[in-house]
## 1
Amino acid sequence: MHLIVDANIPAADACFGVFGRVTRVSGREITRAHLEDADALIVRSVTPVGEALLAGTPVRFVGTCTIGTDHVDRDYLAAHGIGFASAPGCNAEAVADYVLSSLLTHAEREGRPLLERRVGIVGAGNVGRRVQARLEGLGMTVLVCDPPRAEREGSAGFAGLDALVERCDVLCLHTPLVREGRHATRHLLGTNRIAGLQPGSAVLNAGRGDCVDGAALYRRLTMLGDIAALLDVWENEPGIDAALHAEAALATPHIAGYSLDGKLRGSLMIHHALAGHLGSRSALALDDICPPPALAELTLGRALPVEDALRLCARAVYDARRDHDALRRRAAEAGTAAGFDACRAGYPLRREFATLSVRLEGEARTLAGPLAAAGFTLAA
Ligand SMILES: NC(=O)c1ccc[n+]([C@@H]2O[C@H](COP(=O)([O-])OP(=O)(O)OC[C@H]3O[C@@H](n4cnc5c(N)ncnc54)[C@H](O)[C@@H]3O)[C@@H](O)[C@H]2O)c1
Ligand SMILES: O=C(O)[C@H](O)[C@H](O)COP(=O)(O)O
């Protein structure tokens, strides 16, 4: 069996070498020529997969080691009997870490406590639910907008997007890109809603870039300058709008989900899906391919204000400012598109909050609730 595998997929040999010969190709450069004798194609989100890529090739299985599937023409695959799998939830914990790290940094810069803010979550699936649970666990007020879930589950606990825009200090977008239909998300946050955002509020987008109208956001940022944009995803990646990039308070190159744990879970989920597609089973587990964290334990020996403790522990594991600074630097050196992809390809090792075990001694034990809610493990 011959497998074409995106070069940005970790543990490719352990996860896919067991099925046959693996050829690694940069995700944005995979063409039909690479697939002439390929049986399986394993991608991440940067490879558009559909008729243009697959027609006339022998590919019988496509796996994407990502949560998002908007780059895959699933109707085409189904119509041509090509097996497909994605990796729902694989990096949801990493995105929740990114959200907390970003919001804690933004609150510190503004000198306004995060815990007093009202947060709106748009799209409460694997990612949004985790963000909601963490923030509510910290005692914050959270409003949730998810019309497809509200239709299925009943409207209790859900609000409309306009209510979130009117009432929230922070709006977090965790929606997939849905191009058509009643719940389409392209420019979900468009001109009118961006104009309606509360002065002093912040928009964080870690869903898909197209869910926010970047030109309208840029206008509000430059003409009124009274809101903040925390952007991990962008329209036209990797050739993102350099002017919007310059205005964003936190600008990262689509790395919210880039923990090692999250990427490896994605690889592993597609490994198991491919094994199933081939009629076999595998016992490969995350512990077989994921190393222990460099920082496994941290001790807090006295009480700190809750937000200071959260920031200290968050930054010990993942500090979103690092990724913001790297994108600014790389974009200045290499140009926006090349800098964006260079940051992603050379992404430094990052682990998830849960890999840090926090030992609390004496008065610091009062921090147990907030640290656990934020996603850290408490040492016994
Ligand atoms: N920045 C990153 O690195 C990163 C990482 C992971 C996922 N993502 C993106 O985030 C998206 C969400 O991830 P997930 O794991 O939570 O997916 P999910 O499918 O579990 O949840 C998506 C949620 O959005 C809701 N939704 C759909 N249309 C909506 C609309 N019009 N308004 C409000 N809510 C709507 C769905 O009902 C669902 O509950 C993914 O599709 C992916 O595009 C980005
Ligand atoms: O959909 C996802 O899982 C994320 O957006 C993913 O982290 C994107 O990473 P990429 O596929 O671009 O490497």
## 2
Amino acid sequence: MAKPVTLTHSTAQQSAGPALWRQYYELTKPKVVMLLLLTALVGMCMATPNLVEARILIAGLFGIGLLASSAAVINHVVDRRIDSMMARTYNRPVAKGRIGITQALGFATVLGTLGYVCLSLWVNPLTALLTLGSLVGYAGIYTLFLKRATPQNIVIGGLAGAAPPLLGWTAVTGAVHPHALLLVLLVFTWTPPHFWALAIHRRREYANANIPMLPVTHGVAFTKTWVLGYTALLALVGFLPYLVGMSHLIYLLGSSVLNLMFIWYAWQLKFSNDERWAMKTFRFSIVHLMVLFVVLLIDHYLPVTL
Ligand code: HEM
Ligand SMILES: CC(C)=CCC/C(C)=C/CC/C(C)=C/COP(=O)(O)OP(=O)(O)O
């Protein structure tokens, strides 16, 4: 039976809350969106041997960022009930009632419309449509349906979060290229260990909110095995950009080190009894993806070969 979390702050502290603009800002999941935009930027740069045109760079990142932010705001509205049951999320603006549903949905509509118009007018219709598709994938399919339906929720839903390198690529070329899909595959394979490491740490909260995350439905040991499995798979996928000639030696070296480190974290998570490895692995996953995409970028502009 789902129970609301026990609140520990005084009522006065809760009702004060942060400044209004800060709460709207928080609704957009800014740190997640920043990392999504880094992957989109790398997708843009890798789509061309030349420098990316300033109009595409600015309007593209702006539009993708606005639509991703809009998706994040909708996620706060749809998830307000389950967010209020988990210690990690109970204090979120909509879950806490500091921002109303109408206001949040209005904010999401403004962000989404501006983002779509920006991409349609100054980038291209394909990028606008694919980005809108990612919004629907995350805010609609993942949040509204998959999250509550299956422990494979984040594997399938991960496609929306993995899309930005492709969105960046199509912004520059107007077409889908297999190399762009390879970048999507990297983020797609990275997502399960990223999220399941956190879900292991937060499994009791997910169970309390009746969300069928893998550690809740199949247990911690099973989830740890799959985290390790996906890091191994990611290491294999990580060779593909080099093998198909998209990337060169700097990437090969950098990605190998990062992927081996990720496997090491997952190994510790699986075989050490120290509970702290779950959050250590989650935090490392973010550094891993960030550095991996920076390495892709460096390698693109500095193509060292044997
Ligand atoms: C379905 C796919 C994904 C799921 C279910 C997921 C889940 C989560 C969750 C629950 C958190 C919150 C941790 C907390 O509040 O302490 C988080 C944090 C984060 N995620 Fe993901 N994530 C996904 C995909 C991605 C993608 C694709 C990116 C970027 C490319 C990303 C980047 C981040 C970052 C940067 C944080 C840290 C945010 C912060 O510290 O405020 N995530 N993720
Ligand atoms: C247009 C576009 C590129 C859209 C992508 C949108 C986006 C923000 C993807 C990131 C995925 C993410 C943060 C999932 C966590 O949701 P959760 O509900 O499981 O986590 P929570 O409990 O922290 O809310």
